Amino acid sequence: MTTPGPGQGAAPAETQEARRGAFSSRKVFILAAIGSAVGLGNIWRFPYVAYENGGGAFVIPYLVALLTAGLPFLFLDYALGHKHRGSAPLSLARESRKAEPLGWWQVGICFVIAVYYAVIIAYSLRYTFFSIDKAWGDDPEGYFFGDFLQANDPGVTLDVVPGVLVPLLLVWALVLVIMWLGVQKGIGATSVVFIPLLVLAFGALVVRSLFLPGAADGLDALFSPDWGALTDASVWAAAYGQIFFSLSIGFGIMITYASYVGRRTDMTGSGLVVGFANSGFELLAGIGVFAALGFMAQAGGVAVDEVVSNGIGLAFIAFPTIISEAAGGSLIGVLFFASLFIAGITSLISILEVVISAVRDRFDLGRTTAVLAVGIPATVVSVLLFSTTSGLTVLDIVDFFINRFGILLAAVVMMVVLAWGVRSLPSLAAHLNRHGSLKLGRVWMALVGVVAPLALGYVLLSEFLDTVETPYGGHPTWMLNVFGWGTAALVLVVGVVIAFTRRAPVTPAPVDDSEKEAGR
Ligand code: PFF
To answer: What is the pTM for the complete model shown?
Structure first.
């Protein structure tokens, strides 16, 4: 065993855990994990992905992906964090020194996602207020790109747009205060308040949408099954991709959150709750969004497939149109954008905690210092790259590449390394089985070691070939190279470099006396 570092290893379990912070109960952890999982992916990505990939028939690949890859990988993340009680890099290093670079790679990915995700939350904040007086008039699209973003495409500028900058700074100030308040008083308390609020606001939105004229046509479009889609490999790829992003797995988030949970917690049971709550929310979002799109189609006298969109287009162009046309539109707008804002904030704090906890562990910093060390550069990068007139183009590119050649790639590598490189699965299963209600055995190991890596490996390969063949989104090649491939490569290189520089000995996770007695 290595020599304990300053303030680590040697300290009794309670002192060390108190210093790191912890969730006060299993319930708070579950709410925080749901808060992370339920994000923009659920609201603006899932409905579209389901619609495009077989509609009602998408349930089958979706459930298969959830059961064969999503939940098994979630348990893997939980096992690492819960067993080793550290940030993603520290937990992986405690599992095996060879796995540490994976953790830093994930930290890099999280930093990149955080800096652009905050901008979308800032847009949502601004649009919550725009909804009140329908500021976009009769041209939501022109308003979004022209008046609001002052978008200047193509090329990159440093012209900051004040209308984006101000809400962006507010978002950063809010999340950094939450981060500074710590695991329980910050992240935990925010989730306890925000998640019920989100369910209420979004639930009200769905109910209101269902009463709009044309809602049934929208639902029909979403749910009519196209069974032929099941033989299409790209549909299965879409299901696996959606599940990974939506459950927040492979980002290091769930490793980090699990490290703050009491030792005798039933982690597998908690994972099932989180997984099904997240999918339930996706279904709800599908219903709400398509009911509203059905109304939009009817009001415009066109078929539903002509109004379907996702992401930025759905939120900032289609929804404003719906808000302008529906009776009581302002209320729909406030509920929709406030939901995006809340869902976004609880995801953003989870991704920032990955970076903050890693920096704390590595440099032995207090929370305040670490929040400033991460928060100030993140705010500056976020402002310089994304609150400018070219911000949306850069955001679109970074988002596309980092999700594929960051998250998915890191997830596949992590499964392969842990299953075949360091052969950790039996001991990780044994760890979760000690207190878990769902026991993991050979089936779980086969899913994590074989099925999920093969399925995701396939998804990645086909995405890679597509991306090489068709330059994404018609953006200029140099921008794709710099912000797309460049960013994805940079986080990997930086991750490896950090893992191999100034390597201090890894201290073991603090041992809890009750566990020692239990003869671990
Ligand atoms: N599960 C999240 C979502 O569906 O939006 C994924 C996520 C994105 C988590 C960005 C955290 C984050 F900052």
So the answer is: 0.92
